[in-house]
Specification:
disordered N terminus; TSP-1 type 1 repeat; two-stranded antiparallel ribbon; alpha+beta; three-stranded antiparallel beta sheet; single chain; 2 helices
């Protein structure tokens, strides 16, 4: 076997000078690595329906990483339908106790 120095052209010249021991009779060749492409997210579905019609819910988006090194989670979550539900008022505990007392007082009359 013959020791052969191979120079591969590319952006990182210092990393591409290699000393390789290649069997010439086998017809081996050295090819540069493919340049790594940046990873990106591919959306698999549209946002899901909101989990609630009113009063605040959540919806989800599923995606997959193409390549390696994507940042973040494959499932995104966001709030939806934050408006209050009609006819359902949120009352404080104090207000509810006052209403109960009024009803109790009326029933004693």
């Amino acid at each position: 076997m013959k020791m052969e120095k191979v120079h591969l052209p590319g952006k990182d010249q210092h990393a591409l000078d290699l000393a390789l021991d290649l069997p010439q009779e086998a017809g081996w060749t050295v090819q540069p690595r493919e340049e790594q492409k940046p990873a990106f997210w591919r959306v698999l579905q549209q946002w899901s329906e909101c989990s609630r019609l009113c009063g605040g819910g959540f919806q989800y988006l599923q995606r997959e990483c193409v390549g390696t090194g994507c940042q973040g989670d494959p499932i995104l979550k966001q709030e939806c339908n934050p408006q209050a539900c009609p006819g359902l008022e949120v009352k404080s505990t104090e207000t509810r106790l006052e209403e109960v007392q009024v009803v109790q007082n009326r029933s004693r009359l």
